[in-house]
Amino acid sequence: MNEKIENARPAFYTVREAARILRVAPSTLYRVIREGDFPAVQLRTRYVVPAVALDQLLAEATETGGLVDPSRIAAERRAAREFERKSGGAWR
């Protein structure tokens, strides 16, 4: 049973692991995360990157064959959250 857990794909990556996957410097990824332009979860003073976020970036790049801008994706999510907050969470 432990072998299954050890071989399972992680649900989250450390910033260093995600940076390695994206082939950018960890400091670059930390900066983009802190600016709110890359999806991450903050656990006290640490950040982790959801594996699904990396999957979505790859899928979008593959589907469109073009430039994928995580800051645009983050801005769209922020706008949607702000809209839900102001509208009470539902269309009226």
From TrEMBL:
Tell me where in this chain the Helix-turn-helix domain is found.
12-60
The source's domain of life comes to: Bacteria
Specify one Pfam family: HTH_17
Q: Which NCBIfam families match?
A: excise
User: How is this protein named in the record?
Assistant: Helix-turn-helix domain-containing protein
Q: What is the lineage of its organism?
A: Bacteria, Bacillati, Actinomycetota, Actinomycetes, Pseudonocardiales
